[in-house]
Every structure is written in structure tokens, then in C-alpha cells.
Design brief:
This protein is 34% helix and 17% strand. The chain is α/β, with parallel strands linked by helices. The strands form three sheets. It has a seven-stranded mixed beta sheet with strand order 3-2-1-4-7-6-10. Strands 5-12-11 form a three-stranded antiparallel beta sheet. Strands 8-9 form a two-stranded antiparallel sheet. The two termini are 33 Å apart. The radius of gyration is 18 Å and the shape is globular. The chain contains eight helices and twelve strands. The longest helix has 31 residues.
Length: 279
């Protein structure tokens, strides 16, 4: 059994896309657990039946510095606790995945399981994001027992890595990176395999098995505030590559790209993936 843990925020744009791809491309038995935030109870009730487990939490002030019970790491840890109540912790598989990510290959689970069996963990690693070296819940797979017994965490807890540019980055997965190093785990990185890139960080396929749209839950860049760069369709690489543009200008441009390729996913996803693969 594969236990898939995910979160959806603000709206329901990605729910059916993600579920469709898991059903289409997964041969193994699986369950999907989801937290769906920032919606009315009526909206939550409309989708609740689609997951094997679902819960609604209302988004609060997000802070990686605190144990705020409503931030992203907390939600994932909460779902781990729910999953652990019924899972075979030693023999099942645990997958964390972003709400705007999903499999795009029929062998995704076989491939990921093979790598996780050998390396304990396989996870997306976005080297294209200024040399990002941390594991990430964009996609992460291991045995439930391994995660729980080693007290792995998505909270950064003061940990950081140094990017290619020399900047110090504290983010979800930084503490996990150090934990895996302490355990001498040579985790397997799922790397970007696109032959065609519409953006240097977004719209990525990893190891030819997982698609990540990226920024699927960002907000309207027309309302962008400088201190909230990460929530507004703007990445560090965008800022580095467009030094003469404001965050708002970058965000508007990127949102147009995101909306365009979202419609491709809705209308003809396989053609879009083949294009990214260079086929």
C-alpha cells in the first residue's frame, strides 16, 4: 500500500487533476490523505468524498519559525499521524507530494520504490533553483517506519543550506537534509528531466515520472507586497534573472505563463508532457 499525503490551499483547481493522474498511472494499491484549506465548509464538503481521508483547516499566519499548528509542515505531520493509525509501517510506503504535483508515467511507483528500497529515501531535488540541495515534500518517498522512528521533520528548525549564489536558505526540508546526513542516508534525488523549459524552475518533470507545476497555490500578483515574495509567483531565480523588473511585474508575467500551461493540462495534458520531454 502506498499512502499519499498532500495539501490543497485557497481553491480546488488542482484536486481533480491530481486525483486523475494518480488513478491513471498507479498500479499499486494506494490511499490519498488530504488537507484542504481556506475554503468554506460547503466547498470542502463538495470534495471531501474524493479522498480516502480529508480534513479542513483554516489557514493562519504562516511562519517557519514557529510551531504554528496551521502551517505546511504541521499539516503534513498531522497526516502522518492519521496514516500511522492504519498503515503497515514496516512494509507500506509513505509519499509526501504537493497539491500541484502528480505522476506522469505508469512506472512511477515502481521506479520510486526501487530507488527508495536502495537509498531509504527518494525525493525531488531542484538543483535548478540556485543549487537547492534539500529533500522536499514536492515529492518524497520512504517507509513510514523510517520516517517515524527517525523523527524526521519538515520544520527547518534553524537549519539552512547555502545556494550556488552564496545565499543562505532556510526552508521546509532543511532540517530533514541534516537528519538524513546524520543517518548516513545517501538519498536518491529525482532531478529535472525536461528537454524543453517554459520556465527555469516551474513546469518541471522529474526523473521522467513526476510533474510539478509549481506556484499552483500562489495568490494574485496584482496585490504583491515585497516581503511576501515567495507567495506571489516570484522565485529567487526570477529575481536574479530579471533585476530590472519589480516583483509585481515578474509575478504578473509568471501568472500568465502558469494560467496558459494550466489550460494545457486541462485540455491535453499528454501533449504538454510530450512537449516538455522533447517528443
Amino acid at each position: 500500500m502506498i499512502h499519499i499525503l498532500t495539501c490543497h490551499v485557497f481553491d480546488d483547481s488542482w484536486i481533480d487533476l491530481q486525483l486523475k493522474h494518480f488513478k491513471q498511472h498507479t498500479k499499486q494499491d494506494f490511499k490519498i490523505y488530504s488537507i484542504y484549506d481556506c475554503v468554506s465548509k460547503e466547498e470542502f464538503d463538495k470534495h471531501q468524498h474524493k479522498w480516502d481521508y480529508a480534513e479542513q483547516l483554516v489557514e493562519g499566519e504562516i511562519s517557519l519559525e514557529t510551531g504554528d499548528p496551521l502551517n505546511h509542515p504541521y499539516k503534513l505531520h498531522h497526516l502522518v499521524n492519521i496514516m500511522a493509525e492504519s498503515a503497515d509501517l514496516e512494509n507500506d510506503w509513505l509519499v509526501f507530494i504537493d497539491g500541484d504535483a502528480w505522476p506522469v508515467s505508469d512506472n512511477w511507483a515502481d521506479h520510486a520504490i526501487e530507488k527508495a528500497e536502495k537509498h531509504k529515501v527518494c525525493s525531488i531535488k531542484r538543483l535548478e533553483n540556485d543549487g537547492e540541495c534539500r529533500p522536499t515534500p514536492i515529492f518524497f518517498m520512504c517507509r513510514p517506519k523510517f520516517w517515524i522512528e527517525n523523527n524526521l521533520t519538515w520544520y527547518p528548525e534553524g537549519c539552512y543550506y547555502t545556494g550556488t549564489s552564496g545565499r543562505r536558505v532556510k526552508d521546509v526540508g532543511c532540517k530533514c537534509l541534516y537528519q538524513l546526513e546524520d543517518l548516513n542516508v545517501d538519498w536518491y534525488p529525482l532531478l529535472r528531466s525536461n528537454k524543453l523549459n517554459h520556465h527555469n524552475l516551474w513546469f518541471g518533470i522529474y526523473d521522467d515520472i513526476i510533474y510539478h507545476h509549481s506556484k499552483g497555490f500562489s495568490r494574485d500578483p496584482e496585490k504583491c507586497r515585497t516581503q511576501e515574495r515567495d507567495a506571489w509567483y516570484v522565485s529567487y531565480t526570477d529575481m536574479h534573472n530579471n533585476p530590472n523588473l519589480s516583483l509585481k511585474e515578474i509575478g504578473i508575467k509568471n501568472k500568465q505563463l502558469s494560467d496558459k500551461w494550466y489550460m494545457s493540462l486541462i485540455n491535453n495534458a499528454d501533449t504538454f508532457y510530450n512537449e516538455l520531454r522533447g517528443n
